[in-house]
């Protein structure tokens, strides 16, 4: 398996996961907007901050209203993390590695991109947004399930698994970070307190974790427990600890894995050993999450240096 091929399947998985996570986030926030009273001021701009593309947004938009933020997150060609941009790049990566993935995977990916491209205007409007985003999410899940159930779990699949779970861990830390900054500091605000449950529920729904939280935590929804669940629950697939465990399992099957494996072990230990109550009490949760995001970024960098980079004009090395 060539290095450039491994890189393409790795990024295909990251782009599909990125598109799904962004669609989940926008859908959950749109539902929250329906549940909140009109007097409540919701910040759509906060969703842009989750993705880390504030500079691109500020360069092209003057107003931080709902339509501009949703358009930026779903359809803006200048946003490399937009749903449509991510699906376009995922489609190209699948197209160029069609000999490695099941033929049905290419069909699902192609149809997913064409659907998103042809119906993106529906996603921007309030009336059609829920149906559009739900369709995108379901088709992304279809592709993920098809690869898990129909593709040989060889080195190519390990790179898919690696990319998907690394992207998932990164997005979860970002959502928890922005949510915690917006919500935990408002616990003493009497005007905001009645809506804290709705706001944390929205974050759980962004991660598809509302029902699993209710099933396993068995307490009313509150900030510290939601943060703990999304960071440290080893059984929930979108929790950071679980995603990093999957990354570690994929890395253990790949050659020349010493540095990435050391970094993922460190990141997983940071996530599991954190005292959430102490971090919240000392108002250092944001700094901790930034450190965790840096761990994920360093792990990605190690992946690139280990398997994807090679001297210009030199033949790409085998990675498996």
How would you portray this structure in words?
This protein is mostly helical and 320 residues long. It has 15 helices and no strands.
Question: What attributes characterize this protein structure?
Answer:
0% strand, single chain, ATP-dep_Glu-Cys_Ligase-2, DUF403 domain-containing protein, 320 residues, globular, mainly alpha, 2 domains
Q: How much helicity do the residues have?
A: over 70%
The H/E string reads HHHHHHHHHHHHHHH
- How many domain units? 2
Largest sheet: none
Query: Segments where pLDDT lies below 50 for 5+ residues?
Result: 313-317
Give the terminus-to-terminus CA distance: 6 Å
**Number of DSSP E strands:** 0
* C-alpha geometry: globular
Mean pLDDT: 90
Strand content: under 5%
Category from helices, strands and their pairing: mainly alpha
Number of helices: 15
> Radius of gyration, rounded?
20 Å
In terms of quaternary structure, the protein is: single chain
Pfam family, one: Alpha-E
InterPro entries: ATP-dep_Glu-Cys_Ligase-2, DUF403
Organism: Thioalkalivibrio halophilus
Protein name: DUF403 domain-containing protein
């Amino acid at each position: 398996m060539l290095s450039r091929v491994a890189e393409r399947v790795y990024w295909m998985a990251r782009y599909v996961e990125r598109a799904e996570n962004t669609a989940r986030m926008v859908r959950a926030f749109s539902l929250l907007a329906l549940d909140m009273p009109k007097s409540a001021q919701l910040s759509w701009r906060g969703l842009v901050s989750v993705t880390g593309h504030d500079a691109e947004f500020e360069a092209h938009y003057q107003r931080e209203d709902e339509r501009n933020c949703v358009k930026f997150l779903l359809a803006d060609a200048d946003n490399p993390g937009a749903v449509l941009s991510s699906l376009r790049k995922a489609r190209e990566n699948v197209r160029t590695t069609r000999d490695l993935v099941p033929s049905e995977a290419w069909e699902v990916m192609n149809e997913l991109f064409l659907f998103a491209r042809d119906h993106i205007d529906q996603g921007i409007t309030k009336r059609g947004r829920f149906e559009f985003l739900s369709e995108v999410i379901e088709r992304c899940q279809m592709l993920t399930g098809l690869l898990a159930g129909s593709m040989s779990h060889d080195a190519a699949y390990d790179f898919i698994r690696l990319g998907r779970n690394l992207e998932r861990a990164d997005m979860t830390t970002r959502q928890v970070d922005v949510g915690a900054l917006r919500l935990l500091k408002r616990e003493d605000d009497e005007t905001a307190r009645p809506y804290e449950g709705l706001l944390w529920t929205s974050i759980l729904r962004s991660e598809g974790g509302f029902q699993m939280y209710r099933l396993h935590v068995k307490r009313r929804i509150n900030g510290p427990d939601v943060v703990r669940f999304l960071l440290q629950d080893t059984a929930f697939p979108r929790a950071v600890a679980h995603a990093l465990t999957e990354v570690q399992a994929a890395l253990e099957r790949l050659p020349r894995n010493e540095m990435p494996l050391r970094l993922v072990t460190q990141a997983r230990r940071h996530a599991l050993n954190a005292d959430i109550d102490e971090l919240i009490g000392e108002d250092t949760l944001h700094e901790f999450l930034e450190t965790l995001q840096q761990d994920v970024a360093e792990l990605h960098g190690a992946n690139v240096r280990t398997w994807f980079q090679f001297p210009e004009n030199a033949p790409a090395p085998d990675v498996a």
